[in-house]
Design goal:
23 helices; 20% strand; alpha+beta; 807 residues; eight-stranded mixed beta sheet; single chain
Length: 807
């Protein structure tokens, strides 16, 4: 063994109460147990040294953490109970203290396979190498924001920052998978070696180490009375409970409160060293009647972190207290004189503020931070300040259902199951109430989804790592339209009561228990009952307010039209019903909506204007367009002078002119005329008539975005988009596939980001390429010259210059 282990750490172990008790319990035929423990602890000690290689910020998982866990175990158990523990229990307690975090130190080969995630053409040494690579790739794909940031850093050439982000992703992966890895390492390196007498306990040790990061209730699945003969037994759940509490009482960095790290790199940063100082095991007073933390804090972030961590420990104490009650009862029935006790809560009376030389506190501690006024925030989200149009509730419900169906479609495809997505929108009267109902056979919800996403304003499942991981597992590429986690609140713009029936689909034709949820107003507690829904999916019913119902005065035909306008390009069949009228739309319906159907009177026939009609389905852009080009002698021009005449009236000359010219998103007829008023005065004036004017209709992944793409300068808000091209066009387009745009929260405006710039460039390319394909080389050359000279749009210029033409 290494000198530093023999000289420093082995004596520390040998002086521990658990180790000394083990030596006393081990008779002559169990002498190998001590050697086994020494070898195993040395192995864990050496392996733990490599944690800092890939997890420099996780200094909490070095060998000192392992010794602190061992010390806390002894404080929780107390000498009286330590004496009553059996030799295998003592052995497993010591080994679990030193093995539970070895998953924080992965093999170098494994880390190298993860790093291949950023290689252009990764090469694999063997199948195990590729499996490790695929698992890490899945982890990274569940964090698209980090992947986008990494791509941006590499494009900018900021390789140092990119490498830091890569290291962070590897560290985070190690942290989140360390319990599973610990189990794997134990099975690989210690299989058949953790033996007491003739019983192999390697699997049991692996399960105990794995359990410290899992649901505590699963500990009761372990053997509570594992027999070794001669009245020697081991209670495995007891070891698991003691490990969990000891690990978290060391303020385990795997769960460090975010409040601490929010104070890093700000004006007065709090150092990690300061936090570590307060984590020391000597800060704890632990007995059957008291668990008390002692700390003198010199910064409110430190104190807030400690107090929040104590809140986390309180929850763990409560759960483990219930488990210990079951374990103690089992030990009593077995006539074991072993009863473990600990308090329900951490005593915080000695968490105090450090004082200065004048005996005054360095700060006044209050748990004061920014909070949200729920009623005012809800009013902001629901009211006209954000959403404006109350009919947006219908759109939100439909897009939620579409996302649920697309997700289920990906899941069922992965499971090789048949599935046909379908949504029904129904508007009807029942018992004097007007009901808007949206039903889908999508993925549905269970209690976990309801608790963590559906009921939490601003917490969208479709922006969570959980969703991105699921999407990656199913090889799905669909981009959800429900992103902000606030859409369901829009229902309360038109309804006081929301009723949901839902059931979540699970693998192999399984599903959750059906749930029925009633919410009577946005301030209401969810009333959740056992539901009656037979098949997976979700039905949402809105009981509409009489004075806030935007569909109340609509005829059934108008209601159906309003639904069609919300979802112009559905990805699958959507049924629409209203008072004995029923219609369906599906993925073929969008083909019936063309640019020519949007033409207004400004698009009348004009001998000087040629209109090009086109359709496209490329680069994630689906739709049609009508483009007006000004011509003279069948060649494109920027301006045509139609008439020019000079007249003489009472010795004064006046010029009468008429011309037609292209402008931004318009072709205009400009006239210079004269008029005579009642006094006989002659005045000249200019008048402009629109010959063609740009019109747009846009949807994103099938859902309408109710905004104009062609706007005057004064109509465009900061960071919102505006197309300004050197000709007028009518555009009907759906942004589909993997292409996406950034929207404001109510989905009424497109934001000016890189996604929009890329879209506008591709759209300009598609339209100009379509024109080029319809005309001669000479015509295209002249048109390109005219458009480039007239254009003020960088995106348009990039697009037109990408057009390829056989000259």
């Amino acid at each position: 063994m290494a000198d530093d282990f023999n000289d420093t750490f082995l004596p520390r172990i040998q002086e521990s109460e658990l180790y000394k008790a083990l030596r006393k319990k081990c008779c002559a035929k169990d002498s190998k147990v001590i050697g086994l423990v020494d070898d195993a602890v040395y192995y864990a000690f050496e392996r733990t040294k490599t944690i800092i290689t890939h997890m420099g910020e996780y200094t909490l998982h070095d060998s000192d953490h392992l010794f602190r866990v061992l010390q806390i175990m002894e404080k929780l158990l107390q000498k009286k109970n330590i004496k009553q523990l059996s030799a295998p229990e003592l052995m497993l307690l010591i080994l679990s203290a030193f093995f539970h975090d070895i998953g924080m130190a992965p093999d170098v080969k494994e880390v190298l396979s993860w790093q291949k995630n950023w290689d252009v053409n990764p090469e694999f040494i063997d199948a195990e190498d590729e499996i490790a690579f695929q698992k890490f790739k899945l982890f990274c794909s569940a964090r698209p924001d980090d992947e986008d940031l990494l791509e941006m850093l590499l494009i900018k050439g900021e390789t140092s920052k990119a490498d830091t982000l890569k290291s962070y992703l590897i560290s985070e992966y190690i942290r989140t998978t360390h319990a599973e890895r610990a189990r794997t390492i134990i099975s690989k390196d210690w299989n058949g070696k953790i033996i007491f007498r003739t019983t192999d306990l390697t699997v049991e040790l692996a399960q105990i180490c794995y359990s410290h990061n899992e649901d505590a209730q699963k500990l009761l699945e372990l053997d509570m009375d594992l027999s070794f003969g001669n009245d020697i037994v081991a209670c495995l759940p007891l070891i698991g409970v003691i490990l969990r509490l000891s690990d978290i009482l060391d303020f385990d960095g795997k769960r460090t409160p975010n409040v601490l790290y929010s104070h890093l790199y700000v004006r007065h940063p709090v150092s990690i060293a300061e936090w570590n100082k307060h984590r020391n095991v000597n800060s704890w007073d632990i007995s059957p009647k008291l668990i008390q933390f002692n700390a003198k804090c010199n910064h409110p972030a430190i104190e807030a972190s400690i107090r929040k961590f104590c809140d986390i420990i309180d929850k763990e104490l409560s759960v483990c207290h219930n488990l210990i009650s079951v374990i103690n009862e089992s030990n009593n029935k077995s006539a074991r004189n072993l009863e473990v006790k600990f308090p329900f809560k951490v005593n915080r009376s000695k968490i105090v503020t450090e004082k200065d030389f004048d005996n005054q506190p360095k700060y006044i501690y209050r748990d004061t931070h920014f909070t949200l006024s729920k009623s005012q925030v809800v009013e902001l989200l629901m009211g006209t300040k954000l959403y404006g149009d109350p009919q947006v509730a219908l759109r939100e419900l439909i897009q939620n259902s579409i996302d649920a169906c697309l997700l289920r479609s990906a899941q069922e495809n992965k499971w090789n199951n048949q599935y046909t997505p379908e949504i029904t929108v129904n508007y009807y009267d029942l018992n004097g109430e007007s009901i808007l109902e949206v039903d889908d056979n999508g993925t549905g919800m269970d209690q976990h989804i309801i608790d963590n996403y559906y009921s939490k304003v601003g917490s969208s499942f479709y922006k969570s790592n959980e969703f991105y991981s699921l999407r990656s597992e199913t090889n799905s590429t669909f981009i959800p339209t429900s992103r902000f986690g606030i859409g369901i609140l829009s229902c309360f713009m038109v309804a006081d009561t929301l009723i949901v029936d839902t059931k979540k689909v699970y693998i192999n034709h399984g599903s959750s228990d059906p749930l029925n949820i009633t919410v009577e107003g946005q301030e209401s507690i969810f009333w959740i009952k056992k539901g009656l829904r037979a098949l997976p999916g979700t039905t949402t019913k809105l009981i509409l307010r009489k004075n806030k119902n935007p569909w109340e005065k609509m005829s059934p035909e108008k209601f159906i039209q309003s639904v069609e306008s919300v979802i112009p390009n559905p990805p699958f069949k959507i049924n629409i019903r209203s008072t004995n009228i029923e219609k369906f739309i599906d993925e073929t319906s969008f083909k019936k909506i063309t640019s020519s159907t949007l033409k207004d009177k400004s698009w009348g026939v004009n001998e000087n204007i040629k209109v090009f009609e086109m359709t496209f389905n490329h680069l994630g852009i689906v739709g049609s367009a009508s483009v007006a080009i000004l011509e003279e002698s069948e060649m494109p021009v920027e301006k045509i002078d139609l008439t020019a005449k000079e007249i003489d009236i009472e010795g004064k000359k006046y010029t009468l002119e008429k011309s037609i010219r292209i402008g931004e998103n318009i072709i205009s007829e400009v006239s210079k005329s004269i008029s005579i008023n009642e006094k006989g005065e002659i005045r000249s004036y200019d008048s402009t008539t629109e010959a063609s004017r740009s019109i747009s209709q846009l949807s994103l992944h099938g859902i309408e975005v109710p905004t104009k793409l062609f706007k005057y300068e004064w109509e465009t808000k900061k960071n919102h988009i505006r197309i300004s091209w050197p000709f007028p066009l009518i555009l009907v387009v759906d942004v589909s596939g993997e292409r996406d745009l950034d929207l404001n929260s109510p989905r009424t405006e497109i934001l000016l980001t890189n996604k929009w710039n890329s879209f506008e460039e591709d759209l300009a390319f598609l339209i100009c390429q379509n024109i080029a394909d319809q005309v001669s080389d000479n015509y295209w050359y002249r048109l390109k010259e005219v458009l480039i000279a007239a254009s003020k749009s960088d995106a348009f210029l990039i697009g037109i210059n990408r057009v390829e033409k056989d000259w």
